[in-house]
Amino acid sequence: MDQWATVLFTDESRFSLNTDSRRTFIWREPGNRYLPSNVREIYHYGGGGLMVWAGIMLDGRTPLHVFEGGTVTGVRCRDEILEPYVRLFRSAVGPEFILMDDNAGPHRALLVDEFLESEDIRQMDWPARFPDHNPIEKVGDALGRAIATLSENYPGNENSVAEQVGPIATGNDKLPYFKYEVTLQGLYI
User: Known InterPro entries for this protein (predicted)?
Assistant: First the structure.
């Protein structure tokens, strides 16, 4: 297990806040078709969503970063993830620190590579589109289920769900982000 103690496993996840399966049936009396009680707003193209980033290590975790909308680019990756979070973990761990990401486009941007090189942050070689063995994927699945439950309580209201997810970022959460230790303990390569 010591060989994994210096690796920060990271990932972004987008969670849809609209879980409408379009299989809702409404039974109503004739002539009541468009009464407000019989109409429900739906969101096309996935509706609202929440994009988050997180990192886990054997003995720690990053705060959960909630992106404020828009696409994650190389600039946002550097400015919102690498500078405030990864740089601090690299400083705490020392020169043995290794960053593991999922090879997504923003992580391969030239300005990201230049930043990592300037900060002496090594990256783990990881096959593209091969997330199944990244332990943080299990954390993402658990978060997704918890966020889906929250979005059922606040349908169509992205801000309310983001407010409910907010405590994760401060560590005052009840969501399964704290259960990452179990995931990492099973990591043997």
Answer: RNaseH_sf, Tc1-like_DDE_dom
Prediction pTM value = 0.71
- The pLDDT mean for the chain works out to 74
Measure the CA–CA gap between 29 and 15, rounded to whole angstroms. 37
CA-to-CA separations, 5 to 44, 119, 171, 180, in angstroms, rounded: 43, 20, 21, 14
Q: Could you give the CA distance from residue 70 to residue 125 in angstroms, rounded to a whole number?
A: 28
Nearest one of 141, 147, 169 to 160, comparing CA atoms: 147
Residue 72's SS3 state is: coil
Burial class (CB in 10 A: 0-12, 13-18, 19+), 157: middle
CATH assignment, 7-170: 3.30.420.10
Q: Which residue has the higher pLDDT, 86 or 167?
A: 86
Give me the mean pLDDT over the 106-127 stretch.
91
- Span 113-124, average pLDDT: 95
Instruction: State the Rg of the chain over Cα.
Output: 20
**More confident of the two residues 54 and 85:** 85
Q: Rounded to an integer, what distance in angstroms lies between the CA atom of residue 3 and that of residue 138?
A: 20
